[in-house]
Structure formats: structure tokens, C-alpha cells
Amino acid sequence: MRCSYEVICQRNYDEKASTEKMASSMSVKMVDYIVDEHFIDINPSSLKRVKEMILASSSSVQKSAQEKQFLYDIVANGRTGIDVDKFDYIVRDTRACGLGCSFQFERLMETMRVIGDEICYRAKDYLTINKLFTTRADLHRTVYTHAKVKAVELMFVDAMLEAHSYCNILNRLDDPAEYWKLDDTILKTIETASAQELQKARELVLRIRRRDLYQFCNEYTVPKDTMDHFKQVIAQDIVCSQRSGGPELKEEDVAVAASAPATLPPT
């Protein structure tokens, strides 16, 4: 659900921003908020280091020169993609979705070693590492980008936008003191409130509950060799391409969701 709030922010403020970057940015703001709100006594240099580690996968982040560089690969590993963030959400999401997970991160944690300022793994653990990426790819294919899941996400985003005037959602997306309050309870607020301005949002939430979801129409896989020149398709493109004589679609009738495929490690 947290990702859906980032999608709302992306659609309303910066279409080119990635949800991953927005999540990392808010994580940094949350760290500052927690330290200030709870009067945590922490050395400024240590606080700076924590925030750098959160953003470590970004090449634009300036890492402390005196720090051991492998420490920045623990949370967000931009070099190999093997980090505790993946360990966490892969185990959590497979369990939540009732899927089997043959990946065992404990095995890697017990045997990893630091060599030449880089986190390394035994050659015999290559199958475990492969399972990490294949499980992630399976989650992207069968859960994260599943047509029904994307339909629910799009409907949730539309419901939140409809509820903004009542719940002040958009203004809470950039404020860590308010952002942490955006959880599943907001759906119950929409469903139980009698305010007229929530009528459209209530209808969308009810449709989600009843599985009356947006209908999946088609998908297109962009060839890898044309990705650099491919123009992102928007609702207007689809509406302008419809044939005459049939039902007339409007832009608000069409939702377009773009997803990047999960990559596997080189063999």
C-alpha cells in the first residue's frame, strides 16, 4: 500500500520520478523526523552516515570518504543488488501472498565475508543467490505486475485522489509527521464517513471490495533494443487511436500502467 501512495505522488507532482527514489527520499526524511521527534542523541556524522546508507544505491550520493565502502552495500547495494532490503521484502511478500519461498537469506548472512572492501559470497552459494533473483522475478511477474494487482492499485490511487479534499492526502505525502499515518485505516475512514465529497471515493473502495475491478484490455512488451527510443504511451494516445463506429472512449476511461521487468543476475 505504501507504494500506492508513492504512485499518487508520482502522478501529481513528477511523472518522471521513480517510486523507488521517492521512497528513499521519504525514508531519509523519516529518519530526521524520528530523531527530532523523540530527542534521540546521535552524533551528526553518524546520522549523516545512516542517511547515506539508505541512499547508497544511487550513484549521485557522495559517500563519506573515510568510511568503509562495503558498509553502504548492506541496505541498498548498487553494485550487486544483493542487500537486506531485498531479503526483507521477498520473504515478507511471499509469506503474505501464500507463495513458497526457497530462498534462505540466513545461509548467505552466515557465510558472507568482506574481501577488498566488498561483500563477497562463497562460490558454492551461487544457487542461493540465483534463488534470490529468480524469486524476485517471480514476484514481479505473478504479483507486483499482475493485471488484477495493477487494477486494484490504479483504483486505490483514484480513490485517494477523489478523497484528497476531505482527507488532505496530497499534502501529507511530503510531510513525515503525517506520512506515517497513511495506512489501511484510511480506507475505513472513506467507507464510514458520510461526507458527500467522499462519494466517488467510497464507490471506488466498494468496487475493490466487490472485486468489480478495472478491466484489463491489453499489454505490449517493448523490445529491449528499442527501449531508448520508445515513447511512453499515455491515455490520450489510446483514445486518439480508437476506431469510429464503436463505443467512444474518453481519457478518463483509460489507465496505462508501465512496468519494468525484473532482471536476473548474469550467469
Automatic annotation (TrEMBL):
GO terms for cellular component: nucleus. One of its GO terms (molecular function) is dGTPase activity. It comes from the Eukaryota. GO terms for biological process: dGTP catabolic process. Residues 105-215 form the HD-associated domain. This is HD-associated domain-containing protein. It comes from Papaver atlanticum.
